[in-house]
Amino acid sequence: MDQPAKQMQDPTIQQIIDAMPERFDPHAADGVDAVLQFNLTGEEARNFYAIIKDGACTLKIGQHGSPTMSMKMSAQTYVDMVMGRITGQEAFFRRKLTYRGPINLAIRIHRFFRPPETAASA
Q1: How many domains does the chain have?
Q2: Which end of the chain, N or C, is surrounded by fewer C-beta atoms within 10 Å?
Q3: What CA–CA distance (Å, rounded) separates 18 from 29?
Q4: Start-to-end CA span in the chain (Å)
């Protein structure tokens, strides 16, 4: 009997965070000047924020004093979103994600960062 193909292991939260600047797509974020706060809960809880300005993305650990948008979700939900298993909209409607900030920014955020598997080949 054939064994199913091995599924690639997901990157860790830290690997995802560390790779965000490399996965950033400046064309998708053209004209964006924003601070995106990520508050991840659970076993791999993390608080970090991305400063998107002038076609660049800078990451900082911790809480920003006044982010343009803040999102709160479990670390697993974040991994699932990054890996494309669930969209931000699905996570929001399933109450796995809460956010504060402009809706027009919230619906564009997924375009700002390429998935991990395409970042290495870009």
Answers
A1: 1
A2: N
A3: 19
A4: 37
